[in-house]
Amino acid sequence: xxxxxxxxxxxxxxxSAGSFAVARQQxxxxxNEALRQEExxxxxxxxxxQDVVYILTEDEKSVFEKLTTNDERExxxxxxxxRRDPDPRTPSNEFKEEHYRRIAYANDHFTSGDRGWMTDRxxxxxxxxxxxxxxxxxxxxxxxxxxxxxxxxxxxYPFERWRYRHIDGxxxxxxxxxxxxxxxDKYQLAVxxxxxxxxxxxxxxxxxxxxETRLADRADRPGLNPGAxxxxxxxxxxxxxxxxDMPFARYEAYAKVQAPPVLRYPDLKQxxxxxxxxxxxxxxxxxxxxxxxxxxxLVPITIRIANKQLTFKPNGDYQTARIGLYGIVTSMxxxxxxxxxxxxxxxxxxxQIQIGVQRTSIYQRVIPxxxxxxxxxxxxxxxxxxxxxxxxQKALIPPTFDGDKLAGSSLIISxxxxxxxxxxxxxxxxxxxxxxxxxxxxxxxxxRMPLGLYLQVYNAALDQSTQQPALRVTYKLLRDxxxxxxxxxxxxxxxxxxxxxxxxxxxxxxxxxxxPGKYEIQLEVADLARDQTIQAAEEFxxxxxxxxxxx
Length: 551
Prior knowledge:
- With 551 residues, the chain is an alpha+beta fold.
- The protein has four domains: 16-83, no CATH class; 131-256, no CATH class; 266-402, C2 domain (Immunoglobulin-like, Sandwich), CATH 2.60.40.150; 403-551, Immunoglobulin-like (Sandwich), CATH 2.60.40.
- The chain contains eleven helices and 29 strands.
- Strands 16, 17, 18, 19, 21, 26 and 27 form a seven-stranded antiparallel beta sheet that branches. Strands 10, 11, 12, 14 and 15 form a five-stranded antiparallel beta sheet that branches. It has a five-stranded mixed beta sheet with strand order 20-29-28-24-25, with no helix packed on it.
- The longest helix is centred in the first third of the chain and has 26 residues, at 2-27.
């Protein structure tokens, strides 16, 4: 009975305490909200000051510190890891997992008063990962210098020498030394090799090879006399010094090895991630679709930018503009289907620059995509010389090309179409098979320019008598819906026969005698062997020659 009474009392007390806590929460919601805000503030502070302090760029840090809401911060953090994900197609982020593994390893192996992630060894390990080899001398002592260090014998503090085969931004065969000159296991990244020399300050001890042979004096050591480094070949202590042992090279390497890893054009990728909507560098982007196989389509993405928007800088006898370009194609489920970075370079001789700025620069990248999905492409261009940035977003909706019915690709209207005679080796811009076709994506022509047409036809039947496709191609030129001209080709002159699965049509039409204005070109391709027809059409504009230069 006593136990039941005691249990009842405990339950009553617990219920009362819980009721009091609930009541207090209801009475003081402001304090609880303040507590949650304080906890979230600590979380974001730790993320900024500890978790990613070594891999966060200054630009990213500046952006993060300007964010005002937790939703914005969470979005930034998510995008921060996404932009570093080496393979977004996998469910896990390998970079993020490896980063936190490195932090844990640093805390386990490099802690010495300070947490391991706060030490110099921890910092380098977190940024660059495990070295390819480690030479460890935890007790210091006897040491025979390398010739690049001056040779001879000395005694050292405890030190470690890490070797990396390659570090981006620094090069190959990178050697880093960490010295514990306090014998407390606090290894510090050394700038110069003599920082590990325990006898540096003891006259007559730890002589270099040149000092032992009386070719040099102790005062000639750069570690004791910085001015000694300027003697060049006259200082025997420096005879075997390498180019990367020079003082400024050492300081540069010391700074770079501790800097966050950088992307080629990191700001361009970040612009896509945060969906910045402004643009002060205007450019056009167009796409076309061609069947590759049963499952894939090829999508040439063509970019056109007016040179008058670019900043040209002198480069010898030339004026040069340089554009950084970043593109990413994502599916409706936000999976990355294709991603690329590149540089567009446009140059003109100094005496041709006034003509050059009136022209345009074009670029093309061909992207393979699954024909069953829909996509979005984000393109970011940056004028490297002026820092201007342009952003374009487009939907990519591949046609299905279903079954064995007669079908056609996108119709390309071009200012340059030329059969090459053979398929070139390697990738080349504006080349489809053995035809070079440069899309005119702004679709503006002068009367003197020929109108180039390019179309691929799929699933054409073979004429049993000729074993060739039997196609009739009809060309119609319209203005304001009225037919101006019509031409019918039943001989197949524009046809390049590849196979029954793919036929290529290439045609040039003259625009001479046509007045300025908007026009439409229509193509009708009839398969005479099985009585099927497809149509394709594109609009274009004719302007006077003088006005074309200003477009």
